Amino acid sequence: MDLNIRGKVAVVTASSRGLGKATAEALAAEGVNLAICSRDEAAINRTAGAIKEKYQVEVLAEVCDVKDRSGIENFKDKVIRHFSTCHILFANAGGPAPGKVEQFSEEDFREALDLNLFSAINLVTAFLPFMKQQKWGRILASTSISVKQPIPTLALSNVSRAGVVAFIKSLSREIASLNVTANTLAPGFIMTERVENLLENQAENQGITYDEALANIIDTIPAKRIAAPEDFGALCAFLASEWASYITGETILIDGGMYRGLM
Ligand code: NAD
Questions:
Q1: Which has the least CB within 10 A, 4, 195, 198, 252?
Q2: Residue having the nearest C-alpha atom to atom 33 of ligand 1
Q3: Atom 7 of ligand 1 has which residue's CA nearest to it?
Q4: Is the pLDDT of residue 153 over 90?
């Protein structure tokens, strides 16, 4: 199926590896030109080089810490100078540190909000005007299954991501008539470096091996596997496509059936 987005421009943040990189690759495979960023110049340039070589699309790679509003402004200026517009935004960031509610200070919660909530707000604020003007846009925000079912050991993530859902849902209703959709992605477990680190932490804390920690997680997933980053990238590419123009304001789980609630 041709997703009919060849030649469009996508901004994919926090994309030197993991879910951001997988989304960038899935869009590049559809002929979408990319602006990607992360905090590490060598890492983002490596990813850009690999994507350019494999998919023959244009890739602008920049250093940007999405926690920093002026960094996002600066990144936006470079994207617009290079591509003149943005059609697709995948607002993604790293994840906050693991731990329980009582372990964290007010400052820790504020930092997590900067990383996961204000980065999404600032990225949307930067790129939405171009989507509205051209009456075509796709906004995707990355969160976690924790927005539906809080994860006991990820208090900062639980708290900071809930606002993203409220922001995207509220926004989606304001922009739907302009052919700009806004949806939230809520992954369960997708095998990236972050999940590998979480498994290493769990193994250490519980005095078990990495493979035992992995088996414990898989046991909680009805699909009996952890997804590959490509599974996530494919979902994002579809939601960014011409054919997803009537899907908006949704929080879409990709979790192998792990969420236990009804809605
Ligand atoms: P990852 O750690 O493998 O990759 C994170 C990427 O973000 C890296 O490229 C890193 O350089 C970049 N990054 C981190 N902080 C940044 C910042 N402040 N500014 C710019 N770039 C930054 O993580 P991932 O698994 O790809 O996860 C991406 C997001 O999705 C995270 O917020 C994570 O918590 C969330 N998430 C992931 C899963 C999963 O199963 N992988 C599940 C639920 C939620």
A1: 4
A2: 95
A3: 14
A4: no
Nearest-atom index, ligand 1, CA of 66: 19
Count each helix (H run) and each strand (E run) in the chain, helices first: 9, 7
* Average pLDDT of the residues in 24-34: 98
3-class DSSP assignment, residue 144: coil
Tell whether the model's pLDDT for residue 3 goes beyond 90. yes
pLDDT confidence tier of residue 31, bands split at 50, 70 and 90: very high
**Max Cα distance, the chain (Å):** 55
User: Relative to the CA of 22, which ligand 1 atom is closest?
Assistant: 26
Q: What class has domain 9-188+229-254? A: alpha beta
Residue range(s) occupied by CATH 3.40.50.720 in the chain? 9-188+229-254
CB-defined site of ligand 1, < 6 Å? 14-20, 38-40, 64-67, 92-95, 115, 142, 144, 187, 189-190, 192-195
Encoded tokens for 13: 């943040």
35-73 per-position pLDDT tens digit: 999 999 999 999 999 999 999 999 999 999 999 999 999
Give the dihedral sign, CA 14/108/196/149: negative
| Residue pointed to by tokens 């899935």 | 26
